[in-house]
From TrEMBL, chain A:
The lineage of its organism: Bacteria, Pseudomonadati, Pseudomonadota, Alphaproteobacteria, Hyphomicrobiales. Pfam families: BPD_transp_2 (PF02653). Coiled coil: none annotated. The chain crosses the membrane at residues 7-32, 62-84, 96-116, 142-161, 182-211, 223-249, 256-279. GO terms for molecular function: transmembrane transporter activity. It comes from the Bacteria. One of its GO terms (cellular component) is plasma membrane. This is Branched-chain amino acid ABC transporter permease. Belongs to the binding-protein-dependent transport system permease family. LivHM subfamily. It is a multi-pass membrane protein. It comes from Shinella kummerowiae. Keywords: Amino-acid transport, Cell membrane, Membrane, Transmembrane, Transmembrane helix, Transport. InterPro entries: ABC_transp_permease (IPR001851), BCAA_transport_permease (IPR052157).
TrEMBL record, chain B:
Signal peptide: none annotated. Residues 2-238 form the ABC transporter domain. This is ATP-binding cassette domain-containing protein. InterPro entries: AAA+_ATPase (IPR003593), ABC_transporter-like_ATP-bd (IPR003439), BCAA_Transport_ATP-bd_LivF (IPR052156), P-loop_NTPase (IPR027417). It comes from the Bacteria. One of its GO terms (molecular function) is ATP binding. It holds the Pfam family ABC_tran. Gene3D superfamilies: P-loop containing nucleotide triphosphate hydrolases (3.40.50.300). GO terms for biological process: L-amino acid transport. It comes from Shinella kummerowiae. Coiled coil: none annotated. SUPFAM superfamilies: P-loop containing nucleoside triphosphate hydrolases. Keywords: Amino-acid transport, ATP-binding, Nucleotide-binding, Transport. Belongs to the ABC transporter superfamily.
Protein backbone atom coordinates (compact mmCIF):
# COMPACT_ATOMS: atom_id res chain seq x y z
CA UNK A 1 0.00 0.00 0.00
CA UNK A 2 2.81 2.39 0.97
CA UNK A 3 4.45 1.69 -2.37
CA UNK A 4 1.28 2.62 -4.29
CA UNK A 5 0.92 5.86 -2.31
CA UNK A 6 4.61 6.58 -2.91
CA UNK A 7 4.28 6.08 -6.68
CA UNK A 8 1.10 8.15 -6.78
CA UNK A 9 2.76 11.07 -4.99
CA UNK A 10 5.81 11.00 -7.23
CA UNK A 11 3.66 10.68 -10.35
CA UNK A 12 1.34 13.54 -9.36
CA UNK A 13 4.19 15.90 -8.39
CA UNK A 14 5.97 15.26 -11.68
CA UNK A 15 2.64 15.46 -13.50
CA UNK A 16 2.16 18.98 -12.18
CA UNK A 17 5.45 20.09 -13.75
CA UNK A 18 4.69 18.32 -17.02
CA UNK A 19 1.24 19.98 -17.03
CA UNK A 20 2.92 23.38 -16.84
CA UNK A 21 5.36 22.36 -19.58
CA UNK A 22 2.44 21.37 -21.81
CA UNK A 23 0.00 24.17 -20.98
CA UNK A 24 1.87 26.80 -23.00
CA UNK A 25 2.00 24.45 -25.98
CA UNK A 26 -1.73 23.85 -25.68
CA UNK A 27 -2.63 27.53 -25.27
CA UNK A 28 -0.62 28.58 -28.30
CA UNK A 29 -2.20 25.86 -30.42
CA UNK A 30 -5.69 26.69 -29.15
CA UNK A 31 -5.56 30.39 -29.93
CA UNK A 32 -3.35 30.48 -33.03
CA UNK A 33 -3.29 26.92 -34.36
CA UNK A 34 0.51 27.04 -34.06
CA UNK A 35 1.94 23.56 -33.47
CA UNK A 36 4.96 24.84 -31.57
CA UNK A 37 7.57 22.11 -31.86
CA UNK A 38 10.05 24.63 -30.44
CA UNK A 39 8.18 24.83 -27.13
CA UNK A 40 10.42 22.33 -25.27
CA UNK A 41 13.56 24.03 -26.58
CA UNK A 42 12.19 27.29 -25.17
CA UNK A 43 11.55 25.54 -21.84
CA UNK A 44 15.22 24.61 -21.91
CA UNK A 45 15.93 28.28 -22.68
CA UNK A 46 14.05 29.14 -19.46
CA UNK A 47 16.04 26.48 -17.60
CA UNK A 48 19.32 28.03 -18.77
CA UNK A 49 18.20 31.55 -17.73
CA UNK A 50 17.45 30.10 -14.29
CA UNK A 51 20.73 28.17 -14.24
CA UNK A 52 22.62 31.38 -15.05
CA UNK A 53 20.80 33.27 -12.26
CA UNK A 54 21.48 30.46 -9.79
CA UNK A 55 25.14 29.94 -10.65
CA UNK A 56 26.18 33.55 -11.29
CA UNK A 57 24.01 35.47 -8.85
CA UNK A 58 23.00 32.78 -6.38
CA UNK A 59 19.28 33.38 -6.94
CA UNK A 60 16.94 30.53 -6.04
CA UNK A 61 15.36 28.87 -9.14
CA UNK A 62 11.83 29.54 -7.86
CA UNK A 63 12.70 33.21 -7.33
CA UNK A 64 14.16 33.25 -10.86
CA UNK A 65 10.86 31.94 -12.24
CA UNK A 66 9.21 35.34 -12.88
CA UNK A 67 12.44 36.58 -14.48
CA UNK A 68 12.63 33.59 -16.84
CA UNK A 69 8.90 33.96 -17.60
CA UNK A 70 9.24 37.67 -18.37
CA UNK A 71 12.28 37.19 -20.61
CA UNK A 72 10.57 34.38 -22.52
CA UNK A 73 7.37 36.45 -22.86
CA UNK A 74 9.39 39.28 -24.41
CA UNK A 75 11.04 36.78 -26.77
CA UNK A 76 7.54 35.51 -27.56
CA UNK A 77 6.36 38.95 -28.64
CA UNK A 78 9.39 39.36 -30.90
CA UNK A 79 9.10 35.86 -32.36
CA UNK A 80 5.41 36.24 -33.09
CA UNK A 81 5.84 39.61 -34.76
CA UNK A 82 8.87 38.56 -36.80
CA UNK A 83 8.07 34.96 -37.67
CA UNK A 84 4.43 33.98 -37.25
CA UNK A 85 2.32 37.08 -37.85
CA UNK A 86 3.35 37.39 -41.50
CA UNK A 87 1.79 34.04 -42.39
CA UNK A 88 -1.18 34.19 -40.00
CA UNK A 89 -3.76 34.43 -42.80
CA UNK A 90 -2.30 31.59 -44.84
CA UNK A 91 -4.70 28.69 -45.47
CA UNK A 92 -1.92 26.24 -44.55
CA UNK A 93 -0.88 28.14 -41.43
CA UNK A 94 -0.84 25.20 -39.00
CA UNK A 95 1.17 23.04 -41.42
CA UNK A 96 3.60 25.89 -42.02
CA UNK A 97 4.09 26.43 -38.31
CA UNK A 98 5.22 22.82 -37.91
CA UNK A 99 8.13 23.51 -40.27
CA UNK A 100 8.77 26.97 -38.88
CA UNK A 101 8.89 25.81 -35.27
CA UNK A 102 10.99 22.77 -36.19
CA UNK A 103 13.56 25.16 -37.65
CA UNK A 104 13.20 27.40 -34.60
CA UNK A 105 13.85 24.45 -32.27
CA UNK A 106 17.07 23.67 -34.17
CA UNK A 107 18.17 27.30 -33.93
CA UNK A 108 17.42 27.55 -30.20
CA UNK A 109 19.31 24.29 -29.63
CA UNK A 110 22.29 25.60 -31.60
CA UNK A 111 22.25 28.92 -29.79
CA UNK A 112 22.06 27.31 -26.34
CA UNK A 113 24.83 24.85 -27.32
CA UNK A 114 27.01 27.78 -28.36
CA UNK A 115 26.35 29.70 -25.16
CA UNK A 116 26.34 26.93 -22.58
CA UNK A 117 27.99 23.92 -24.33
CA UNK A 118 26.30 20.53 -24.48
CA UNK A 119 27.18 19.47 -20.94
CA UNK A 120 24.32 18.28 -18.74
CA UNK A 121 23.29 20.95 -16.23
CA UNK A 122 21.05 21.10 -13.19
CA UNK A 123 20.47 23.75 -10.59
CA UNK A 124 20.94 22.40 -7.10
CA UNK A 125 19.14 24.39 -4.41
CA UNK A 126 19.12 22.65 -1.02
CA UNK A 127 15.56 21.43 -1.37
CA UNK A 128 16.28 19.69 -4.70
CA UNK A 129 17.85 16.74 -2.89
CA UNK A 130 15.86 16.87 0.35
CA UNK A 131 12.67 15.04 1.21
CA UNK A 132 9.78 14.92 3.66
CA UNK A 133 9.01 11.59 5.27
CA UNK A 134 5.53 10.50 6.27
CA UNK A 135 5.89 7.00 7.68
CA UNK A 136 7.40 4.86 4.94
CA UNK A 137 6.52 7.37 2.26
CA UNK A 138 9.05 9.95 1.19
CA UNK A 139 8.16 13.09 -0.72
CA UNK A 140 11.08 14.73 -2.55
CA UNK A 141 10.93 18.43 -1.70
CA UNK A 142 12.13 19.53 -5.14
CA UNK A 143 9.40 17.65 -7.02
CA UNK A 144 6.78 18.65 -4.48
CA UNK A 145 7.64 22.35 -4.67
CA UNK A 146 7.84 22.22 -8.46
CA UNK A 147 4.48 20.44 -8.63
CA UNK A 148 2.79 22.89 -6.25
CA UNK A 149 4.21 25.95 -8.04
CA UNK A 150 3.19 24.50 -11.43
CA UNK A 151 -0.37 23.79 -10.38
CA UNK A 152 -0.62 27.21 -8.71
CA UNK A 153 0.47 28.90 -11.95
CA UNK A 154 -2.01 26.82 -13.96
CA UNK A 155 -4.79 27.64 -11.46
CA UNK A 156 -3.92 31.34 -11.83
CA UNK A 157 -3.95 31.00 -15.61
CA UNK A 158 -7.33 29.26 -15.49
CA UNK A 159 -8.81 31.99 -13.29
CA UNK A 160 -7.40 34.61 -15.65
CA UNK A 161 -8.91 32.84 -18.67
CA UNK A 162 -12.24 32.28 -16.92
CA UNK A 163 -12.89 35.67 -15.35
CA UNK A 164 -10.76 38.45 -16.85
CA UNK A 165 -11.76 40.46 -19.90
CA UNK A 166 -8.60 39.42 -21.73
CA UNK A 167 -9.21 35.84 -20.64
CA UNK A 168 -12.66 35.96 -22.22
CA UNK A 169 -11.08 37.32 -25.38
CA UNK A 170 -8.48 34.54 -25.44
CA UNK A 171 -11.11 31.84 -24.88
CA UNK A 172 -13.37 33.37 -27.50
CA UNK A 173 -10.53 33.55 -30.03
CA UNK A 174 -9.66 29.92 -29.26
CA UNK A 175 -13.21 28.79 -29.94
CA UNK A 176 -14.12 30.97 -32.90
CA UNK A 177 -11.57 33.45 -34.17
CA UNK A 178 -13.90 35.11 -36.69
CA UNK A 179 -16.71 35.50 -34.18
CA UNK A 180 -14.33 37.03 -31.65
CA UNK A 181 -13.19 39.55 -34.23
CA UNK A 182 -16.80 40.41 -35.10
CA UNK A 183 -17.53 41.10 -31.42
CA UNK A 184 -14.72 43.61 -31.12
CA UNK A 185 -11.76 41.47 -30.11
CA UNK A 186 -8.50 42.60 -31.67
CA UNK A 187 -7.43 39.07 -32.56
CA UNK A 188 -3.97 40.18 -33.67
CA UNK A 189 -3.29 41.58 -30.20
CA UNK A 190 -4.81 38.51 -28.56
CA UNK A 191 -2.59 36.26 -30.68
CA UNK A 192 0.54 38.15 -29.62
CA UNK A 193 -0.63 38.08 -26.00
CA UNK A 194 -1.40 34.36 -26.06
CA UNK A 195 1.95 33.59 -27.69
CA UNK A 196 3.72 35.68 -25.06
CA UNK A 197 1.81 33.90 -22.26
CA UNK A 198 2.64 30.54 -23.88
CA UNK A 199 6.33 31.36 -23.86
CA UNK A 200 6.13 32.81 -20.34
CA UNK A 201 4.75 29.43 -19.28
CA UNK A 202 7.70 27.79 -21.06
CA UNK A 203 10.08 30.08 -19.15
CA UNK A 204 8.35 29.33 -15.84
CA UNK A 205 8.40 25.60 -16.56
CA UNK A 206 12.11 25.93 -17.41
CA UNK A 207 12.84 27.36 -13.96
CA UNK A 208 11.15 24.41 -12.26
CA UNK A 209 12.57 21.86 -14.66
CA UNK A 210 16.06 23.17 -13.90
CA UNK A 211 16.10 21.44 -10.51
CA UNK A 212 13.81 18.50 -11.30
CA UNK A 213 15.60 17.15 -14.39
CA UNK A 214 19.10 17.51 -15.72
CA UNK A 215 19.08 19.31 -19.05
CA UNK A 216 21.24 20.08 -22.07
CA UNK A 217 20.36 21.87 -25.34
CA UNK A 218 19.27 18.76 -27.28
CA UNK A 219 17.08 17.46 -24.44
CA UNK A 220 14.01 19.05 -26.07
CA UNK A 221 13.74 16.23 -28.64
CA UNK A 222 13.02 13.89 -25.75
CA UNK A 223 10.37 16.20 -24.34
CA UNK A 224 8.41 17.11 -27.43
CA UNK A 225 6.94 13.61 -27.83
CA UNK A 226 6.11 13.49 -24.13
CA UNK A 227 4.43 16.90 -24.22
CA UNK A 228 2.57 16.13 -27.45
CA UNK A 229 1.22 12.95 -25.80
CA UNK A 230 -0.02 14.94 -22.83
CA UNK A 231 -1.59 17.69 -24.94
CA UNK A 232 -3.17 15.28 -27.43
CA UNK A 233 -4.59 13.12 -24.61
CA UNK A 234 -6.13 16.18 -22.97
CA UNK A 235 -7.31 17.66 -26.28
CA UNK A 236 -5.25 20.19 -28.22
CA UNK A 237 -6.07 23.68 -26.95
CA UNK A 238 -7.59 22.62 -23.62
CA UNK A 239 -5.62 23.70 -20.53
CA UNK A 240 -7.77 21.53 -18.27
CA UNK A 241 -7.18 18.63 -20.66
CA UNK A 242 -3.44 19.21 -20.51
CA UNK A 243 -3.46 19.07 -16.71
CA UNK A 244 -5.58 15.91 -16.64
CA UNK A 245 -3.49 14.34 -19.42
CA UNK A 246 -0.23 15.17 -17.65
CA UNK A 247 -1.39 13.82 -14.31
CA UNK A 248 -2.76 10.59 -15.83
CA UNK A 249 0.29 9.86 -17.95
CA UNK A 250 2.78 10.79 -15.25
CA UNK A 251 1.11 8.52 -12.72
CA UNK A 252 0.88 5.67 -15.23
CA UNK A 253 4.53 6.23 -16.23
CA UNK A 254 5.52 6.18 -12.55
CA UNK A 255 3.76 2.82 -12.03
CA UNK A 256 5.25 1.40 -15.23
CA UNK A 257 8.71 2.66 -14.24
CA UNK A 258 8.50 1.07 -10.80
CA UNK A 259 6.80 -2.20 -11.57
CA UNK A 260 8.02 -3.00 -15.07
CA UNK A 261 11.22 -1.01 -15.44
CA UNK A 262 12.44 2.54 -15.90
CA UNK A 263 13.18 1.91 -19.60
CA UNK A 264 9.50 1.28 -20.22
CA UNK A 265 8.37 4.40 -18.39
CA UNK A 266 9.01 6.72 -21.35
CA UNK A 267 7.22 4.29 -23.64
CA UNK A 268 4.01 5.04 -21.71
CA UNK A 269 3.84 8.47 -23.36
CA UNK A 270 4.53 7.21 -26.89
CA UNK A 271 2.08 4.35 -26.54
CA UNK A 272 -0.57 6.72 -25.18
CA UNK A 273 -0.06 9.07 -28.13
CA UNK A 274 -0.42 6.17 -30.55
CA UNK A 275 -3.59 4.84 -28.91
CA UNK A 276 -5.23 8.27 -28.52
CA UNK A 277 -4.67 9.13 -32.17
CA UNK A 278 -6.25 5.83 -33.17
CA UNK A 279 -9.18 5.80 -30.75
CA UNK A 280 -10.03 9.40 -29.87
CA UNK A 281 -7.97 11.87 -31.92
CA UNK A 282 -9.72 14.87 -30.36
CA UNK A 283 -8.50 13.78 -26.89
CA UNK A 284 -10.44 13.89 -23.62
CA UNK A 285 -11.56 17.54 -23.72
CA UNK A 286 -11.00 18.48 -27.36
CA UNK A 287 -13.58 18.98 -30.07
CA UNK A 288 -14.12 16.37 -32.74
CA UNK A 289 -12.64 17.69 -35.99
CA UNK A 290 -15.28 18.62 -38.55
CA UNK A 291 -15.58 16.41 -41.59
CA UNK A 292 -14.40 18.08 -44.81
CA UNK B 1 -33.28 60.83 -47.88
CA UNK B 2 -31.18 60.56 -44.68
CA UNK B 3 -28.31 58.17 -45.23
CA UNK B 4 -26.95 56.16 -42.33
CA UNK B 5 -24.77 53.95 -44.48
CA UNK B 6 -23.81 54.69 -48.04
CA UNK B 7 -22.02 52.06 -50.11
CA UNK B 8 -20.87 53.33 -53.48
CA UNK B 9 -19.66 51.08 -56.28
CA UNK B 10 -17.46 48.85 -54.19
CA UNK B 11 -15.28 46.01 -55.44
CA UNK B 12 -14.18 43.25 -53.04
CA UNK B 13 -13.14 39.59 -53.05
CA UNK B 14 -11.32 36.97 -51.02
CA UNK B 15 -7.53 37.35 -50.69
CA UNK B 16 -5.93 37.86 -54.08
CA UNK B 17 -8.77 36.03 -55.84
CA UNK B 18 -11.18 37.51 -58.38
CA UNK B 19 -13.64 40.20 -57.33
CA UNK B 20 -16.88 38.70 -56.04
CA UNK B 21 -18.65 42.03 -55.90
CA UNK B 22 -17.85 44.69 -58.47
CA UNK B 23 -19.97 47.79 -58.66
CA UNK B 24 -22.27 47.07 -55.71
CA UNK B 25 -24.02 50.00 -54.11
CA UNK B 26 -26.72 50.51 -51.53
CA UNK B 27 -28.13 53.15 -49.28
CA UNK B 28 -29.29 52.42 -45.76
CA UNK B 29 -31.79 54.67 -44.00
CA UNK B 30 -31.98 54.77 -40.21
CA UNK B 31 -34.56 52.64 -38.44
CA UNK B 32 -35.65 50.63 -41.47
CA UNK B 33 -35.31 47.00 -42.48
CA UNK B 34 -33.36 46.56 -45.70
CA UNK B 35 -33.32 43.24 -47.51
CA UNK B 36 -30.70 42.25 -50.06
CA UNK B 37 -31.87 39.53 -52.42
CA UNK B 38 -30.26 37.79 -55.36
CA UNK B 39 -29.41 34.35 -56.69
CA UNK B 40 -26.68 32.12 -55.28
CA UNK B 41 -23.26 33.60 -55.96
CA UNK B 42 -24.62 37.12 -56.41
CA UNK B 43 -22.24 38.38 -53.72
CA UNK B 44 -24.81 39.14 -51.00
CA UNK B 45 -22.77 37.73 -48.10
CA UNK B 46 -19.56 39.14 -49.59
CA UNK B 47 -21.13 42.60 -49.56
CA UNK B 48 -21.91 42.35 -45.84
CA UNK B 49 -18.41 41.02 -45.12
CA UNK B 50 -16.89 43.94 -47.02
CA UNK B 51 -19.00 46.45 -45.06
CA UNK B 52 -18.00 44.98 -41.70
CA UNK B 53 -14.28 44.89 -42.55
CA UNK B 54 -13.82 41.14 -42.93
CA UNK B 55 -12.81 41.67 -46.55
CA UNK B 56 -10.74 44.56 -47.82
CA UNK B 57 -12.42 46.92 -50.24
CA UNK B 58 -10.46 47.25 -53.48
CA UNK B 59 -12.47 50.08 -55.00
CA UNK B 60 -15.36 52.29 -53.94
CA UNK B 61 -16.36 53.63 -50.54
CA UNK B 62 -18.31 52.60 -47.48
CA UNK B 63 -19.47 55.71 -45.63
CA UNK B 64 -21.16 55.46 -42.23
CA UNK B 65 -22.57 58.64 -40.67
CA UNK B 66 -20.33 60.54 -43.07
CA UNK B 67 -17.19 58.65 -42.01
CA UNK B 68 -15.22 56.43 -44.40
CA UNK B 69 -14.93 52.86 -43.13
CA UNK B 70 -12.56 51.51 -45.81
CA UNK B 71 -9.50 49.80 -44.30
CA UNK B 72 -10.86 49.50 -40.77
CA UNK B 73 -10.76 46.13 -38.96
CA UNK B 74 -14.02 44.39 -37.93
CA UNK B 75 -13.49 45.30 -34.27
CA UNK B 76 -13.04 48.96 -35.21
CA UNK B 77 -16.17 48.95 -37.37
CA UNK B 78 -18.15 47.32 -34.55
CA UNK B 79 -17.10 50.15 -32.24
CA UNK B 80 -18.59 52.57 -34.79
CA UNK B 81 -21.94 50.83 -34.32
CA UNK B 82 -22.24 48.20 -37.05
CA UNK B 83 -22.85 44.62 -35.90
CA UNK B 84 -22.68 41.58 -38.17
CA UNK B 85 -24.19 38.13 -37.62
CA UNK B 86 -22.80 35.76 -40.24
CA UNK B 87 -24.58 32.68 -41.58
CA UNK B 88 -22.83 30.37 -39.14
CA UNK B 89 -24.08 32.63 -36.28
CA UNK B 90 -20.61 33.19 -34.78
CA UNK B 91 -21.38 31.73 -31.36
CA UNK B 92 -18.91 30.29 -28.88
CA UNK B 93 -20.10 26.72 -28.60
CA UNK B 94 -18.28 25.96 -25.36
CA UNK B 95 -19.38 29.14 -23.62
CA UNK B 96 -22.70 29.41 -21.84
CA UNK B 97 -25.50 31.63 -23.09
CA UNK B 98 -24.58 34.22 -20.45
CA UNK B 99 -20.90 34.10 -21.41
CA UNK B 100 -21.83 34.53 -25.08
CA UNK B 101 -23.88 37.58 -24.13
CA UNK B 102 -20.92 38.86 -22.11
CA UNK B 103 -18.78 38.55 -25.22
CA UNK B 104 -21.46 40.58 -27.00
CA UNK B 105 -20.59 43.42 -24.66
CA UNK B 106 -16.84 42.98 -25.01
CA UNK B 107 -16.29 46.52 -26.28
CA UNK B 108 -18.08 48.05 -23.27
CA UNK B 109 -15.61 48.79 -20.47
CA UNK B 110 -18.19 49.07 -17.68
CA UNK B 111 -18.73 45.46 -16.52
CA UNK B 112 -21.74 46.33 -14.36
CA UNK B 113 -23.42 48.01 -17.29
CA UNK B 114 -22.83 44.89 -19.41
CA UNK B 115 -24.39 42.72 -16.71
CA UNK B 116 -27.39 45.09 -16.50
CA UNK B 117 -27.88 44.88 -20.25
CA UNK B 118 -27.53 41.08 -20.18
CA UNK B 119 -30.24 40.92 -17.52
CA UNK B 120 -32.41 43.07 -19.77
CA UNK B 121 -31.85 40.74 -22.72
CA UNK B 122 -32.61 37.66 -20.60
CA UNK B 123 -35.80 39.35 -19.45
CA UNK B 124 -36.92 39.92 -23.03
CA UNK B 125 -35.93 36.49 -24.33
CA UNK B 126 -37.27 33.89 -21.86
CA UNK B 127 -35.78 31.02 -23.87
CA UNK B 128 -32.33 32.47 -23.26
CA UNK B 129 -33.07 33.09 -19.59
CA UNK B 130 -34.07 29.43 -19.17
CA UNK B 131 -30.81 28.36 -20.77
CA UNK B 132 -28.51 31.04 -19.39
CA UNK B 133 -26.07 28.46 -17.99
CA UNK B 134 -26.26 26.06 -20.94
CA UNK B 135 -23.45 25.83 -23.49
CA UNK B 136 -24.47 27.52 -26.73
CA UNK B 137 -23.29 24.54 -28.78
CA UNK B 138 -25.92 22.31 -27.18
CA UNK B 139 -28.90 24.48 -28.19
CA UNK B 140 -31.19 24.05 -31.20
CA UNK B 141 -30.61 26.03 -34.39
CA UNK B 142 -33.47 28.44 -33.62
CA UNK B 143 -32.26 29.04 -30.09
CA UNK B 144 -28.73 29.65 -31.37
CA UNK B 145 -30.02 32.16 -33.91
CA UNK B 146 -32.07 33.89 -31.22
CA UNK B 147 -28.92 34.14 -29.08
CA UNK B 148 -26.86 35.47 -32.01
CA UNK B 149 -29.46 38.16 -32.75
CA UNK B 150 -30.13 39.05 -29.11
CA UNK B 151 -26.39 39.32 -28.47
CA UNK B 152 -26.10 42.15 -30.99
CA UNK B 153 -28.45 44.26 -28.86
CA UNK B 154 -26.03 44.39 -25.91
CA UNK B 155 -24.00 47.18 -27.50
CA UNK B 156 -27.13 48.98 -28.79
CA UNK B 157 -25.79 49.21 -32.32
CA UNK B 158 -26.97 51.54 -35.07
CA UNK B 159 -27.02 48.80 -37.69
CA UNK B 160 -27.36 45.03 -37.37
CA UNK B 161 -26.44 43.06 -40.48
CA UNK B 162 -27.92 39.56 -40.62
CA UNK B 163 -26.70 37.02 -43.15
CA UNK B 164 -29.49 34.54 -43.87
CA UNK B 165 -30.88 34.22 -40.34
CA UNK B 166 -33.48 31.73 -41.60
CA UNK B 167 -30.94 29.28 -43.00
CA UNK B 168 -31.61 25.72 -41.88
CA UNK B 169 -34.52 26.64 -39.61
CA UNK B 170 -38.07 25.23 -39.55
CA UNK B 171 -40.72 27.60 -41.04
CA UNK B 172 -42.28 28.32 -37.63
CA UNK B 173 -38.89 29.22 -36.21
CA UNK B 174 -38.10 31.37 -39.25
CA UNK B 175 -41.12 33.53 -38.47
CA UNK B 176 -39.85 33.95 -34.90
CA UNK B 177 -36.54 35.23 -36.30
CA UNK B 178 -38.36 37.77 -38.45
CA UNK B 179 -40.41 38.81 -35.41
CA UNK B 180 -37.19 39.44 -33.47
CA UNK B 181 -35.89 41.43 -36.42
CA UNK B 182 -39.04 43.56 -36.47
CA UNK B 183 -38.73 44.12 -32.75
CA UNK B 184 -35.16 45.32 -33.27
CA UNK B 185 -36.35 47.68 -35.96
CA UNK B 186 -39.16 48.98 -33.76
CA UNK B 187 -36.54 49.85 -31.16
CA UNK B 188 -34.70 51.98 -33.68
CA UNK B 189 -32.06 49.51 -34.78
CA UNK B 190 -31.50 49.60 -38.52
CA UNK B 191 -31.47 46.13 -40.04
CA UNK B 192 -29.61 45.07 -43.16
CA UNK B 193 -30.66 41.58 -44.06
CA UNK B 194 -29.42 39.12 -46.66
CA UNK B 195 -32.09 36.55 -47.39
CA UNK B 196 -32.17 33.63 -49.80
CA UNK B 197 -35.93 33.41 -49.31
CA UNK B 198 -36.61 36.60 -51.28
CA UNK B 199 -40.38 36.55 -50.78
CA UNK B 200 -40.14 36.22 -47.01
CA UNK B 201 -37.31 38.72 -46.77
CA UNK B 202 -39.00 41.43 -48.81
CA UNK B 203 -42.33 40.96 -47.08
CA UNK B 204 -40.63 41.74 -43.78
CA UNK B 205 -38.54 44.63 -45.09
CA UNK B 206 -39.05 48.32 -45.89
CA UNK B 207 -36.39 48.52 -48.57
CA UNK B 208 -35.22 45.98 -51.14
CA UNK B 209 -31.87 45.70 -52.91
CA UNK B 210 -31.39 43.35 -55.83
CA UNK B 211 -27.89 42.04 -56.38
CA UNK B 212 -26.70 39.88 -59.26
CA UNK B 213 -23.20 38.88 -60.40
CA UNK B 214 -21.69 41.17 -57.78
CA UNK B 215 -23.54 44.28 -58.96
CA UNK B 216 -26.58 46.11 -57.66
CA UNK B 217 -29.32 45.78 -60.29
CA UNK B 218 -31.71 48.11 -58.55
CA UNK B 219 -33.06 49.10 -55.16
CA UNK B 220 -36.30 50.61 -53.94
CA UNK B 221 -39.18 50.21 -51.49
CA UNK B 222 -39.60 46.51 -50.67
CA UNK B 223 -43.21 46.48 -51.93
CA UNK B 224 -42.11 47.92 -55.26
CA UNK B 225 -39.27 45.43 -55.60
CA UNK B 226 -41.63 42.61 -54.67
CA UNK B 227 -44.14 43.69 -57.32
CA UNK B 228 -41.56 44.14 -60.07
CA UNK B 229 -42.23 41.55 -62.83
CA UNK B 230 -38.48 40.92 -63.33
CA UNK B 231 -38.09 40.06 -59.67
CA UNK B 232 -41.22 37.94 -59.76
CA UNK B 233 -39.79 36.04 -62.66
CA UNK B 234 -36.13 35.81 -61.64
CA UNK B 235 -36.12 35.38 -57.88
CA UNK B 236 -39.64 34.49 -56.82
CA UNK B 237 -40.18 31.75 -59.38
CA UNK B 238 -43.01 33.69 -61.06
CA UNK B 239 -45.04 33.63 -57.82
CA UNK B 240 -47.22 36.65 -57.17
CA UNK B 241 -46.61 38.08 -53.78
CA UNK B 242 -49.78 37.88 -51.67
Amino acid sequence: MAEIVQILILGLALGGVIALMGSGLSLVFGVMRIVNLAHPSLIIGGAYITYWGFKSLGIDPIVMLPVAAAIMAAIGVLLYRLVFQREAKSAKYSEMTVLLTFALAMMVEGLLGGLFTNTQRVTSPDYATAAFFIGDVFIPKGQLYAGIVSLTIIAGLSLFLKYSRLGYAIRATTQNREAAELLGVNVQFISVLAFAIGLALAGAAGSLVSFVFSFFPAKHWEWIAMLMSVVVLGGMGSILGTVVGALILSVVAAFVGTWIGATWSTLTFFLALFIILLVRPQGLFGEKPEMA
Amino acid sequence: MTKLLDVTNITAGYGDGPAIIDGAHLTVEPGKVHCIIGPNGAGKSTLLKAICGMLSIRKGDVMFKGERLNGLRPDQILRKGICFVPQERALFAKMTVRENLRMGGFIIDDKREVERRIDGILERFPILRERADQHAGTMSGGQQQTLAMARTLIIRPDIVMLDEPSLGLAPKVVQEMFDIMKMMSAEGVTVLLVEQNALMGLKNADWGVVLDLGRTLFEGPAATVLADPRIQELYLGGKKAA
